[in-house]
Amino acid sequence: KKTPLIAPSLLAANFLEIGKDVNMINNSEADWLHLDVMDGRFVPNISFGLPVIAAVTKISTKVNDVHLMIEEPEKYAEAFAKAGANILTVHIEACRHLHRNIQQIKGLGMKAGVALNPHTSVSQLENIIADLDLVLVMSVNPGFGGQHFIEKTYEKIRQVKALINQSGSKALIEVDGGVTLDNSKAVIAAGADVLVAGNTVFSAKDPVEMIRALKHNS
Ligand code: DX5
Ligand code: ZN
User: Fold this and answer.
1) What ipTM describes this predicted complex?
2) Among all ligands shown, which has an atom nearest to the Cα of 145?
3) What total of structural domains would you count in the chain?
4) What is the CATH number of the domain that holds 46?
5) How far apart are the CA of 35 and the centre of ligand 2, in A?
């Protein structure tokens, strides 16, 4: 039995009363607060950015897990550190100098993560895995909440797990997109350490109970 870390995604919150939802997460068994930043270029959607994250991290008592779905993330890493990010994850598809970007993030005092789109091969992590704190496996195409989990992801999670084991890396595996109470067991069994959940948490009748259920379901 393995207890995963739970990272509710604020993308599915009620933005008119965002503080209420952050406090709900604060008062739950959630471990991380997942914050999705979209620029309308790397992904076909725009979410929220630095001022919102700076406000949210002021009241958040959880680990602030910032998922950058943006081009040229190196231009903004320092600003996200100042805005209170504890973990900064960049997309491998958006980084021409990934090794430099990871060193930059760590140099700013944050944990460093790399995200893989559904089509991106795990083998692309071979030369960077030892430097990573987190691998974020996208189980939907990034850009929107509420999408359906792509089944091929199970195999990718197993591949990332194998790569971590053979390299001696201490990276955690986070799975993001379409995670439900029904598939969470299989996601964890495949090797996930951290579950992101947007719609599953925020469309639940009792979000605090749903977070508890996701955490203790395996
Ligand atoms: C999608 C984001 C996800 C999203 C997940 O691009 O990276 O974090 O909020 O939402 P659900 O859990 O509803 O698929
Ligand atoms: Zn995300």
Assistant:
1) 0.99
2) 1
3) 1
4) 3.20.20.70
5) 7
